[in-house]
Backbone:
């Protein structure tokens, strides 16, 4: 593993332990070159996933991108980080358990929206505003009235 501080490729693992939900291994590392300490995570990957965009372009699935979009929607919301990690791991497991390795981006968005709706309504609306490409305030109004009708 390359040191994020100095680029040294000879880093040492000082401690390994499973995460709380046992979905990954957390490794504390130290760089003998600069003394920098950092953490890495090792996760099981059941299969290679390819995301098929609306344009038809295909890109490798990136868990970090999924995490970033979920954390953006949850920004400044009081949600337990372990709950968020379990939610993200659950979405990834659902995607990996599908028969095909190709996943439409719309399917990822749908799964994230379902999960966020159960965790935090504000984050759900934030994510929907980007995912469904809201252009103006009336798009929010329509979405919120549809949400109320579903309740």
Residues:
């Amino acid at each position: 593993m390359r040191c994020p501080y100095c680029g040294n490729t000879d880093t040492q693992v000082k401690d390994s332990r499973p995460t709380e939900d046992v979905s990954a291994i957390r490794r504390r590392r130290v760089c003998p070159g600069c003394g920098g300490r950092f953490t890495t995570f090792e996760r099981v990957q059941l299969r290679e996933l390819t995301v098929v965009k609306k344009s038809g372009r295909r890109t490798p699935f990136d868990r970090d991108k999924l995490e970033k979009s979920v954390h953006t929607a949850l920004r400044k919301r009081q949600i337990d980080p372990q709950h968020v990690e379990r939610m993200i791991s659950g979405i990834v497991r659902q995607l990996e358990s599908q028969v095909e390795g190709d996943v439409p981006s719309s399917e990822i968005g749908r799964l994230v929206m379902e999960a966020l709706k159960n965790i935090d309504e504000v984050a759900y609306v934030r994510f929907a505003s980007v995912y469904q490409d809201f252009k103006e305030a009336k798009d929010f109004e329509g979405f919120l009235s549809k949400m109320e009708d579903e309740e």
In short: The mean pLDDT is 88.
